[in-house]
Amino acid sequence: MGHEKIMGHDIDNTGTNPLTGRRRVWKEYQKVIPSDKYFYVRSCIRQNIFPASEVHFLKIMREALGKDVYENPHHTTCSGIGYHSDVVPLETSMTIVARQFALMAEAGYENLAVSCITSFGLYTEFLETWQHFPHIRERIAEKLYRATGRELVLPKCVAHASDIIYALRDEISQKAKYRLVNKNTGEPLRIVEHIGCHYAKMFPSKGVGGAEYPCVLSGMVDAWGGQIVDYPERRQCCGFGFRQYLVQANRGYSISNTKKKFDSMEPYHPDAIIANCPGCPYFMDRWQYVIAEMEGKTYGENGFGIPVLTYEELAGLVLGYDPWDLGLQVHQTSVEPLLDKMGIEYDPSQKYKGLDGKDLGRPEEPRVLKTELCPHCL
Amino acid sequence: MIDFGYGITRSNRLNLDEADLTLARKMARREKSFGTCIGCGTCTAGCTAGHFTAYNPRKIQLMILNGQTENLKEDLEKCMLCGRCQMLCPRGISLRSLWSKLYRALDAPHKTPSVTRDIF
Predict the structure, then answer these.
(1) Do A255 and B6 touch (CB under 8 A)?
(2) What one-character-per-residue DSSP string does A5-65 give?
(3) How close, in Å, is residue A251 to chain B by CA atoms?
(4) Domains of chain B in sequence order
(5) Domain check: are A114 and A236 in the same one?
(6) Considering Cα of A376, then B1, then B3, then B9, what sign does the dihedral take?
(7) Are residues A180 and A271 both part of a single domain?
(8) Helix (H/G/I), strand (E/B), else coil: A235
(9) With an 8 Å Cβ cutoff, is A347 touching chain B?
(10) Are residues A79 and A103 in the same domain?
(11) Is B16's Cβ below 8 Å from some Cβ in A?
(12) CATH number for the domain that contains residue A263
């Protein structure tokens, strides 16, 4: 600690002044995240692949933390998935996004909470574009008015939903029923965090910790008692990449990329993976089954995979929600090893029951990847 | 195994902790200018042999640094030692000397590249 030269600047690392030293440098990597009053926009695909994540974000915010989060059923796709797949023109996407902002303003909100990383990246990209090229913003405002009769009002803050959970992580920690600690050994659980590429790699200043030190998920894990795994391919893409997956012939690129990540994290024996993107947990969850079928390779203990959760699911487990209400039964990779380590009580007979007790049907058992617990498995 | 219609490509990642860098260390000792290369590729762009064959001096330099020395000898045999790369190198690396020393370091059966041997 003391004075040192960093990139030609004399930096005070004594820590005596809150605006000097590492604190001043770190300040550049922070973003303002309001803790209340949000207009929430959902993802196109998350409700299909992790069906209870978004509803539990709302439940945690409204019921557990008492926050005001409004959701308008008239909001639509942001069109990001079409934009990144080259089927929706840029100005069409901009007008759709402008309509979302208009809906937010009409509802009396200034802060936008975004469920999807692609949407978050797209909103950020368009706001940056409109800031630097005001004539484009004017053109889009005109198109929006012509198409819908609405006025374009820019949000005061655009936060990804994981930003908000990050900002409220200590409040969640205070209400925690379970912690990310192995109940048998007392050791912190080893968690791999994976942040969606569109969160901060495009606009580093819009993410907590920027692109170099994104701590939006690691902050949650730290606050809830877990230990982050720092492995060589930590910041590598999950492998989704729209065009790598949408065309079947290209899916080899996607799975090769994911395998590279799993091979890299395997020596650290992670207990779980969390992600804040729609595609990342989906691909890291499902590709474990495909890799097992293709190469006979599994990455968890005793032939299981590594459980992959969304941050809402992890927050829900920490707060003591029922794993099956959180939708953990629709994961391809079995989550029971994680539940057992955390000491979470669950009823295996209710795994494939819907909320109304209706039988959801059991999925076919994979040939290689173990998905059901038996007394001999662990 | 199930045929999904696509496959997993083998990773081409290099683990430099496990790579055999004996040759790179040997070359750094024998030819001091070897370590000053910035990999700009001017040598390859102006290479006489490279104009007619797949010879690529920059690739050879990279392969040495990566410890991928399996096919170096065959590649190096294409060099005519004309010295054009040395003339063009912005770092002033003594490339003719480097190739000759590399040839010896690889323990080649003949001490000079084949083209040069045939000429002289």
Answers:
(1) yes
(2) EETTEEEE-S-SSTTSHHHHHHHTT-----SS-EEEE--SSHHHHSTTHHHHHHHIIIIIS
(3) 6
(4) 22-119 (1.10.1060)
(5) no
(6) positive
(7) yes
(8) coil
(9) no
(10) yes
(11) no
(12) 3.40.50.11810
Interface contact B6-A259, CB threshold 8 A = no
Q: What is the pLDDT of residues A38-66, one digit of tens each?
A: 999 999 999 999 999 999 999 999 999 99
B7 contact residues in A (CB cutoff 8 A):
252, 294
Percentage of chain B surpassing pLDDT 70?
Answer: 89
- Of the three residues A110, A136, A161, the one that is the final residue of a domain is A161
Paired tokens of B82: 């004309």
ipTM above 0.85, yes or no: no
- A-interface mutation test, from B2, B8, B14, B17, most A Cβ less than 10 A away: B8
DSSP 3-state assignment of A364? coil
Domain tally, chain A: 2
Among A127, A161, A195, identify where a domain stops: A161
Predicted local distance difference test score (pLDDT) of residue B3: 86
Residue A58 belongs to domain with CATH number? 1.20.1050.140
Q: Do B4 and A251 touch (CB under 8 A)?
A: yes
Q: Which of A249, A259, A260 is closest, CB to CB, to B6?
A: A249
Residue A113 main-chain phi, psi, to 5 deg: -105, 120
* Nearest chain A CA: its distance from B1 CA (Å): 6
Kindly identify which residue of chain A lies nearest to residue B9, measuring between CA atoms.
Answer: A256
Query: Does residue A238 contact residue A257 with C-beta atoms inside 8 Å?
Result: yes
CA-atom Rg of chain A in angstroms: 22
User: pLDDT per residue over A162-216, tens digit each?
Assistant: 999 999 999 999 999 999 999 999 999 999 999 999 999 999 889 999 888 899 9
